[in-house]
């Protein structure tokens, strides 16, 4: 079976995301990956925004491509995951692209309508990613040969929910470690995308 190019997009997307965050931190004087959320890197007037916005757009486009091919890739390997999870992942990618037009407000500054929209879109995208991972885990847990991956997906979801809740609480308190826990949450999802894509490529 030929390698599904859509899965290669899924494998590339997390790498592009990590590269964007690392480059953005390097380009932003005084930026702390432990203390600051990633959205600060692309807020209005951020020195790295001109470079990161295109990179994040590429990332989200790759996520959409991955989502479009996900159902077919599983079906070619004898399992049906339905349309819900791929639709949610595609929605996440599309939401990420729209967020680029609504940069977050500077930390501690009064919230503007643009900042409120950014926060709302980020919240919606977060829920969509969690539901997508949950859907895949539940769909595969009864499939012979896929139960281990289903368990891995559900364990990943637990990390996303637990660390995401903590990150939200710390962000509300302007904690000096809120950036760290945000990254734990995002990393859990990104590694799931990468592993999912690589598992499908290997099984092909």
Secondary structure layout plus pairing:
Layout: H1 5-27, H2 49-76, H3 84-99, H4 113-140, H5 147-172, H6 178-203
Helix pairs in contact: 1-2, 1-6, 2-3, 3-4, 4-5, 5-6
Write structural notes for this entry.
The protein has 204 residues and is mostly helical. The chain has one domain. The chain is 72% helix and 0% strand. The chain contains six helices and no strands. The protein has helices at residues 5-27, 49-76, 84-99, 113-140, 147-172, 178-203. The mean pLDDT is 94.
Descriptors:
72% helix, globular, mainly alpha, 6 helices, 204 residues
Q: What form results from the Cα inertia axes?
A: globular
Q: What are the low-pLDDT stretches, counting only 5+ consecutive residues below 50? A: none
What is the alpha-carbon Rg in Å? 17 Å
What is the count of distinct domains?
1
End-to-end CA span: 6 Å
Work out the strand percent.
under 5%
Total DSSP E strands: 0
**Class by helix and strand content?**
mainly alpha
The description of the largest β-sheet is: none
Figure out the total of helices.
6
Q: Please state the average pLDDT score.
A: 94
**N to C succession of SSEs:** HHHHHH
- The percent of residues in helical segments reads over 70%
Could you provide a short overview of the structure?
With 204 residues, this protein is mostly helical.
């Amino acid at each position: 079976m030929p390698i599904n190019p859509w899965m290669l997009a899924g494998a590339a997307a997390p790498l592009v995301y990590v590269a964007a965050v690392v480059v953005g931190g390097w380009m932003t004087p005084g930026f702390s990956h432990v203390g600051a959320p990633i959205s600060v890197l692309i807020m209005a007037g951020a020195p790295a925004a001109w470079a990161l916005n295109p990179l994040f757009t590429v990332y989200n486009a790759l996520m959409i491509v991955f989502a479009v091919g996900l159902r077919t890739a599983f079906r070619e390997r004898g399992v049906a995951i339905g349309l819900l999870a791929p639709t949610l992942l595609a929605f996440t990618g599309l939401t990420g692209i729209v967020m680029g037009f609504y940069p977050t407000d500077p930390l501690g500054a009064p919230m503007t309508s643009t900042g409120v929209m950014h926060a709302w879109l980020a919240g919606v995208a977060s829920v969509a990613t969690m539901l997508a991972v949950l859907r895949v885990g539940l769909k595969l847990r009864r499939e012979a040969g896929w139960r281990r991956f289903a368990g891995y997906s559900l364990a990943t979801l637990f990390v996303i929910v637990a660390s995401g809740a903590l990150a939200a609480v710390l962000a509300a308190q302007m904690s000096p470690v809120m950036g760290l826990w945000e990254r734990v949450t995002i990393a859990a999802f990104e590694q799931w995308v990468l592993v999912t894509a690589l598992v499908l490529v290997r099984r092909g």
